[in-house]
């Protein structure tokens, strides 16, 4: 039978002599049928364990590069560190490069520095702009696989994307919004942290399309470029409320929800429905306080586990697999909050 294992390894697995294994493999006879079966079972065991054997003693240095508010990057760090034991027998070490905002050139400089220094892989959350796409191409050319997290760079040379189907997430938000608002009048404020993150753009398109189909008369008021930061988000929301007295609900695509709620309170306005994304610490607290209607969440631990596996596959340490499926979208209410924000 064909197999990739040396006789010595098969003999050690079966607990037999190399001579006996050699006779079985070459059909020379003089071996009991039960002994021959032990040899074949040993080969089957080695084949099943081949992935583990390839991983033993392997260390993968992975860089996590993110442009995101601190509350989200903290959740990502916690999720990755919680998943590291599940990746054994491989050892994954991580370096974190987090920034809340700034020009794309600074992010590109980080990626190029990683390329010069060397890395087994990069997990990246970044805006979808040409200079970042080019930097991903340089990393790929240098043999450093890049996995996009939460928001994709589909035109880049990235090795894979992990995260939810963002159009479906936006449509889900529209469904919930329509169910809760019903026939009540009122406009909906949609809030993006930046127009350059593809995930936010796709969520907004999914939301707008589903709202147009379900409630075509409902006016959507968009604000953007608050970077998900409370300091900038407050002014944007307050200005929108001052301009439009009919805003009654919020779909928060990019975060900054504490500031959004404070703007409503300071304006003396009620927010009848508030749908947000991601169970970071802020949103978990707001949900428990019943200040958010629902949070659309996906399991960050699952995403980061899969991202590490894509890196390992790129280095031949795991067998090839089919396309990575989108993460499941969880609708979290005050009554079904997971035990931990990272899932």
Explain this structure.
The chain is 46% helix and 17% strand. By secondary structure, it is of the alpha/beta class. The chain has 3 domains: 7-55, 434 Repressor (Amino-terminal Domain); 59-163 and 300-315, Rossmann fold, CATH 3.40.50; 166-297, 3-Layer(aba) Sandwich (Rossmann fold), CATH 3.40.50. The strands form 2 sheets. A 6-stranded mixed sheet has the order 7-6-8-9-10-11, with helices on both faces. The chain has a 5-stranded parallel sheet with strand order 2-1-3-4-5, sandwiched between helices. Helix 1 (7-14) crosses helix 3 (33-55) and helix 5 (104-117) packs parallel to helix 6. The two termini are 45 Å apart. The mean pLDDT is 91.
In total, how many beta strands? 11
Q: Note the run of SSEs as H and E.
A: HHHEHEHEHEEHEHEHEHEHEHE
Task: Kindly state the percentage of residues in helix.
Answer: 40-55%
Overall tally of structural domains:
3
Question: What strand order characterises the main sheet?
Answer: 7-6-8-9-10-11
The CATH superfamily of the largest domain turns out to be Response regulator
What is the CA-atom radius of gyration, in angstroms? 26 Å
**CATH fold-level topology of the largest domain:** Rossmann fold
Main sheet properties: 6 strands, mixed
Structural class: alpha/beta
What is the element layout, followed by pairings?
Blueprint: H1 7-14, H2 18-25, H3 33-55, E1 59-67, H4 70-83, E2 91-99, H5 104-117, E3 121-125, H6 130-141, E4 146-149, E5 160-162, H7 166-181, E6 187-191, H8 198-214, E7 220-223, H9 230-243, E8 247-252, H10 257-266, E9 273-277, H11 281-288, E10 294-297, H12 300-314, E11 330-332
Parallel strand pairs: 1-2, 1-3, 3-4, 4-5, 6-7, 6-8, 8-9, 9-10
Antiparallel strand pairs: 10-11
